[in-house]
Amino acid sequence: MKTIAIMNNKGGVGKTVTAINLADILVRDYHKRVVLADCDGQVNLTRFFLPEFDPEFGCTVADVLTGMNEPCWRVNLMGIRPGLDLLPGSPALYDLDLIAIRDGLRDTGALRRFREAVEEDGETDFFIFDCPPGYTLSSVSALLAADEVVVPLVIDGFSFFGMMDMKAQLESLRRAAPEIAGVLVLQWRNSEVVKQGVELVREMGLPMFGTAIRRTEKVPESTFERQPIVLYSPGSAAAQDYRRWVKEYLGGEL
User: Fold this and answer.
1) CB atoms < 10 A from the CB of 119, how many?
2) How many CA atoms lie within 13 A of 202 on its CB side?
């Protein structure tokens, strides 16, 4: 089982959209079994799939972090469709961050142990964490549980700062931190500033995916319709690009 954290310290760069479409393509095109975990208190990932979900009546990432989840890992998940399950998020994650600030970090190994239980049963191929911006209790726990990190990046200065901050934080975690699998450029367009930005990433020595996701209005439209881009607009540039990227990420695996 491969465990992936989708992370950038900058918000609004497409982390959740990338998590959604990575999971969807893995299930739809490659027939993989995927677990998604919503580690963001904004719960955009959860609302995308389960707009009526009430954290009072289901397990969430916050419950796993506080040890309030059920002992059997599968009981804690919400089935989205065959092959795809979700560990929902909750605004309670914000409360945990306040407690962590006041009293110090709690158990940052809880998500790792949950992931290990999933892996041990051999029923899942990919476990994907959709992380919030910044180093929160849930994002640190997800990073410590992950094998590698995918860094979505929109070419602007603020996103670069977030990316570089994250790189420095990962290096500070040293042996416990996952490797950066690659920077994934989103909202790519054929302009000089984007080309210069891509070259700057390469000069920084960060691993970078050869595939970029082209800019198209179909992506924000798909979030309103709560559909993965391959289902909402299969012929769009972004749908084609996400499929190419997943194929690249899997090393051409079919």
Assistant:
1) 15
2) 8
- What distance lies between CA 98 and its chain's CA centroid? 23
Alpha helix positions (H), 88-181: 92-103, 110-121, 137-145, 157-173
pLDDT in tens, 172-203: 555 556 888 888 998 877 777 777 777 777 77
Interior angle at CA 225, CA 3 and CA 253, nearest 5: 35
Q: Taking the CA atoms of the chain, what radius of gyration do you get in angstroms?
A: 17
* Separation in Å, CA 14 to CA 45, 140, 203: 11, 19, 23
Phi, psi of 141 (to 5 degrees): -65, -40
Q: Residues 84, 24: contact at Cβ < 8 Å?
A: yes
**DSSP state, residue 176:** G
Answer yes or no: are the C-beta atoms of 36 and 86 closer than 8 Å. yes
Residue 18: per-residue pLDDT: 97
Average pLDDT over residues 73-83: 94
Give Cα separations from 23 to 88, 108, 126, 156, 246 (angstroms). 15, 25, 8, 26, 10
At residue 176, the pLDDT reads 57
Phi/psi at 31 (nearest 5 deg)?
55, 40
- Other Cβ atoms less than 10 A from the Cβ of 107: the count is 14
DSSP-derived letter for residue 211 is -
Which of 230, 226, 254, 227 has the alpha carbon at shortest distance from 242? 230
Q: Which helix (H) or strand (E) holds 2?
A: strand 2-6
Q: What is the pTM of this model?
A: 0.90
How high does pLDDT run on average in the chain?
A: 87
